[in-house]
Amino acid sequence: QVQFVESGGGLVQPGGSLRLSCAASGFTLDVYDIGWFHQAPGKEREGVSCISSNDWKTRYVEAVKGRFTISRDNAKNTVYLEMNSLKPEDTADYYCAAAPYCDSAQNEFDYWGQGTQVTVSS
Question: Under DSSP, is residue 83 helix (H, G, I), strand (E, B) or coil?
Fold first, then answer.
């Protein structure tokens, strides 16, 4: 099995925080750029954040800037997404995936996991 395993989701009140983990299973993630994506009910999946492999450069969609932080620990083969000041509109299934570059198209990302559900009550 070659994929990511996402965890850390759950139910949280608006303004709360969660830390999602993305653990690589069956491969080593250090040569990949890693992105976090989310998909809300009835919506298309969209990119949220990404971290590069070569210089740990990070990028975020405008809606989460200043609230979310992506990081990676290659020794643990894991990428994290710390989410603060959560809003009801953050409610979605969250996925991570790997690509050669953060600016790759979404369909160039691979090793998608099962996702982890984040629900922000309203």
Answer: strand
